[in-house]
Specification:
Oligomer: single chain
Number of strands: 7
Radius of gyration: 22 Å
Distance between the termini: 66 Å
Order of helices and strands: HEEEHEEHHHHEEH
Strand order of the largest sheet: 1-3-5-4-2
Number of helices: 7
Largest sheet: 5 strands, mixed
Number of domains: 2
Structural class: alpha+beta
Length: 214
């Protein structure tokens, strides 16, 4: 199958998806755009900024695909993107390239167009992603729970403790016990975590506390 036909197939595959908030569009990287001259499948590299692309020589090994629903940064993407990024690497790591510009925790995965063609190793996964933007729901759940735990450790536990115990009478209460109590209260009230851009998680802890006290 020619690269021209494969490019058309892949773009058609994702053209109808409405889940663009997850990064559902596919970008074909031609020549040396982001790609070092000696790149090989399985490489990890820190890429370059778009302003430097024109300064690079042309590559001679065809096109590379920026895989959909698997790129992001501290300010873009989300749990879906992180989960797919991990799953792609777990299942197809040896044939993929992981790349970053080095700014704001950004990440992306590239695949050679030959591996994305119909019959190639990635085709079935890409075909499934066109209809549903998550490769592995279990991985997504893991990523979401990690984001929630990170939020708790970085700011939420302090805010909850300060709200329920401003005079510090409960200094004996461990963060783990407080976390379990908070999670139980939130679950009983059907108060859910919100997963935001940049794989951040938040919850209306004030409402959970107010409802638990009423």
């Amino acid at each position: 199958m020619s690269e021209e036909r494969t490019s058309s197939q892949l773009h058609t595959l994702f053209a109808m998806t409405s889940a663009t908030r997850y990064g559902g569009t596919m970008r074909v990287l031609r020549g040396m755009e982001w790609i070092p001259e000696t790149v090989e499948r399985g490489d990890r590299f820190i890429g370059i900024g778009n302003n430097d692309i024109d300064k690079l020589p042309a590559a001679d090994d065809g096109e590379w695909i920026e895989l959909p629903y698997s790129s992001g940064s501290d300010y873009s993407g989300g749990a879906v993107n992180v989960a797919n990024y991990r799953t792609f690497l777990d299942e197809f790591g040896p044939i993929l390239i992981t790349a970053s510009t080095g700014w704001y925790g950004d990440y992306t995965i590239l695949a050679h167009i030959d591996d994305c063609a119909e019959g190639g190793e990635l085709w079935d996964v890409l075909d499934d992603l066109a209809g549903y933007p998550v490769i592995d729901d279990e991985m997504l759940s893991t990523v979401e729970r990690e984001a929630e735990a990170e939020a708790w450790e970085s700011w939420l536990s302090q805010d909850v403790r300060a709200t329920i115990d401003p005079d510090d009478h409960l200094d004996w209460l461990s963060d783990d016990l407080l976390w379990n109590a908070f999670e139980d209260a939130a679950s009983e009230q059907d108060e859910y975590w919100i997963h935001e851009t940049g794989n951040q998680a938040s919850i209306d802890f004030g409402r959970v506390i107010r409802n638990a006290a009423s």
